[in-house]
Design brief:
Blueprint: E1 18-21, E2 24-27, E3 35-40, E4 54-59, H1 73-76, H2 90-99, E5 104-107, H3 116-128
Parallel strand pairs: 4-5
Antiparallel strand pairs: 1-2, 3-4
Helix pairs in contact: 2-3
Length: 131
């Protein structure tokens, strides 16, 4: 269950991927995925969509859950500054996904609303580039 704990000024708090600056939340992981892989779509919950294709999978550090059984705990329970991340603006992710002939981009490995702003921008770039 997501934590309802408020975050103090200048603190990251429970939600590792964001920081409170003058009452506004700023993403600390935008454009900095820590996991980037090509996966078969069959590994995803949408295995029946585009069967036999590759999915460009990515995640940023942090998660709004603390699942005791998380297989990705090394990144899901980390702060962005605690893991190696790639500098990857949305246009680069879409370009790389096209280069490997991926038919989809998956926001995975952690609960993806942690990097919602990045995910939304990526989806818009994906649409613009007729992915």
């Amino acid at each position: 269950m997501p934590s309802p704990l408020p975050r103090s000024q200048g603190k990251e708090g429970y939600l590792q991927g964001a920081e409170n600056r003058d009452g506004k939340y700023y993403s600390l992981a935008y454009g900095n995925p820590c996991a980037v892989h090509s996966d078969p779509i069959e590994k995803k919950p949408f295995f029946h969509v585009l069967p036999g294709t590759a999915s460009f999978s990515l995640a940023t550090a942090g998660c709004n859950f603390q699942c005791k059984f998380c297989q990705n705990w090394e990144i899901s329970q980390a702060f962005p500054e605690d893991v190696y991340s790639y500098e990857a603006p949305p246009e680069l992710i879409v370009k790389k996904a096209k280069e490997i002939h991926a038919r989809s981009i998956a926001y995975t490995y952690v609960e993806p609303t942690i990097f919602y702003e990045y995910m939304l921008t990526l989806a818009n770039w994906q649409r613009k580039k007729a992915f």
